[in-house]
């Protein structure tokens, strides 16, 4: 039996190591910050890649070449090789584009002119403009960012550039962005001496032995009305005079049927002594410094909440002798309970409650599965945010964020299996049935996410969106689930089943006592406790949600880590308070109350997300948003609920053995 278990563990470890090798050597960002990127020589040609058109108000991505944009000279190629695991699984790669960059060469170039716009093309361009769609473009693996300014102050950076502008007050207000201004930051690998010096064609012949890496790209999109016939004789990549690029200009290229749209662009290179990750860290620090006060105020409010809860817990419960009296009593026979209760009164009432403290809860298999999933999500959240805060990993795009989340979720299936089976064995007093617990654990949250993603994918397919994932993509996800997550879950359960049980100082009664007087209002109040964990994480969640939905840069991971630590503390104190109040009322249903009290924060998270249903353009967008909101709220509920159950169990155990 031991040899068989060892062979199973060896097989699972081999599969995990194979997955890690695949992810860290091909499909994930390189450790140490952003992707390292290739070194280029001066004058070397590099072409930008384009992704999907995205909008925060439709949530429906569409193809870049679905609009009348310029095609590459060699034609549109199939999606490029995936840069991370998520793109490989979901087949959401990038396409080639005609935008050419010659390293170190400043130039202003003509790209192409479209055929006369047809009526359907005009309507589609206006629709994409009204829905505030943005073009996502990438150069050397870096996403292009545009600056968001207000009266000269930098508010942040947003992914891509808009399809067009809609100027209210005009009869024909839609104008297309047909001129792009690129600012490319280069880092010289050897002998870079002058920070901030500009490069150009004059320097193209100097330092041929030096390599240059792209460390940042900014883009400004504007609408330019070229004089009629001024670009008719131009070919692709012919030079044109520079343009004073302003986002909103009076002479804009309006979207009108029968007109040809000329596309042009400018490239300017700027040398930088910053590496790729250091450059982004410095820029983002300057962006978020004005908002640090908001994060600090939120953290201060959370600390005050923790202090109040700690004082309430100590003076209300921990100083009462009733809590310590739990350790003085042992199990009684069911027949002697009522007799002793009548004869001895209050003292024997405490004995009766003491025997029910460690009694099994209802639906304990479900409770163990939820707790295991919650522990898994806790590990994923803490490791992901801590690694991002320390600069070990970087998540500049949503696909990289999903890649790291998927990898960590698969790996920490081991923790989920261990925690759920450990809780199961300590509730039952034995490990019988632990395999079914692991199966529940493997299917519950993963099944919910899979069903929601399937429904969202069906909506994408109905709307003709590029977010649609093929059946093969879902088969790959099922393969990861069956070959990685399920074996790791069973491996963790096996290790937990072979470990020693927690020494319980009280022997549970054979039969749970019926609670004669139950206060329904107290059960409702359990859900009110969820407002405290929710308020602890609300500010950071707002910034995360805003950055994901609107494509904004996010780099305040240090505040997010602190908020998660405070969230864990608040959940722990809330669960302990609710558990103590339940036991004071002789209510032995503390297991689920310890889970639901902090776990109800997921309900408030869902209500908050529903309140953010603003300016969604269609019913399909609303359904997609609700689906993703259910996933986020469920993960929050499992995160906080698992902490509540485990902390409450350890607290009661410590009280019972007189350690508190």
UniProtKB/TrEMBL annotation:
Keywords tagged on the record: Endosome, Membrane, Signal, Transmembrane, Transmembrane helix
Superkingdom per UniProt: Eukaryota
GO biological process, one term: protein localization to membrane
Localization per record: Endosome membrane; Golgi apparatus membrane
Membrane topology, from the record: Multi-pass membrane protein
Keyword Membrane in record: yes
InterPro entries, alphabetized: EMP70 (IPR004240)
Membrane-spanning ranges: 299-318, 374-395, 401-425, 437-461, 473-493, 521-545, 557-578, 590-610, 622-652
Entry keyword Nucleotide-binding: no
Primary subcellular site in the record, as a coarse category: membrane
Record's GO cellular component terms: endosome membrane; Golgi membrane
Family label: Belongs to the nonaspanin (TM9SF) (TC 9.A.2) family.
Designated name of the protein: Transmembrane 9 superfamily member
Source organism of the structure: Anthurium amnicola
Source lineage: Eukaryota, Viridiplantae, Streptophyta, Embryophyta, Tracheophyta
